Structures are given as structure tokens and as C-alpha cells.
Amino acid sequence: MSGSVSPTVPALPEADIRAAMHAQQWERAFELLADHDRALREALGSADLSQLPSAPWRELLDQQAALLGDLVALRDETAEILARMGRERRGALAYRTFAG
Questions:
Q1: How many structural domains comprise the chain?
Q2: Cα radius of gyration rounded to whole Å, the chain
Q3: Residue 5 lies in a domain
Q4: What is the pLDDT of residue 93?
Q5: CA 65 to CA 57: how far, in whole Å?
Q6: What CA–CA distances, in Å, run from 40 to 34, 45, 50, 57, 65?
Q7: CA–CA separation, 22 vs 57, rounded Å?
Q8: 57 lies in a domain?
Q9: Gap between the terminal Cα atoms of the chain
Q10: Which residues form the domain of 89?
Q11: How much is the pTM?
């Protein structure tokens, strides 16, 4: 690598992100993700990726994929809850209309 320094793989603050999500502190979770994204872009900004060992970066990618999978599951669960609430609301309004 002719004197260049390998960038350090930024740690994904997964536990902090999950804790913020669990506490419904969405702004904090977004902030943590944005900070990680900035650190990642900075680390990779001028790196020659062909000269870097891939294992640490693949491990980070696996961690990110696991977190993303959980976010997708949470999104789907939330969508189902909202759909159910909509159905229940429509049912209550129909009952009130016919009963009243």
C-alpha cells in the first residue's frame, strides 16, 4: 500500500441504536445512524478498497444487514398495527352510524 494507512472500520453503534428504538427515541436513533454513515463515508472516502482486507468490512456489512432486517420487520409490524387500527375505527364508526 506504499505508505498509506488502512482506514479503521467504524463501529456500528448497534446496541445504542436498538436501545433508542426500543425507547421510541427515533431522533436519537436517526442521529446515531447519521453519525455512523458520516464515519463510514469518511473512512472509505479516499481508501483504495482493493488493498484493504475485506473481512472487517464484511463483518460490518453483516451487522448492518441484521439491523436493517430488524428495522424492516418493525416497519411491517407497525404497518399491520396501523391497518388493524384503521379497520377497528371504521367498524366503530359503522356501528355508531347504524346504532345512532
A1: 1
A2: 22
A3: no
A4: 84
A5: 12
A6: 10, 8, 17, 10, 15
A7: 27
A8: yes
A9: 79
A10: 14-99
A11: 0.74
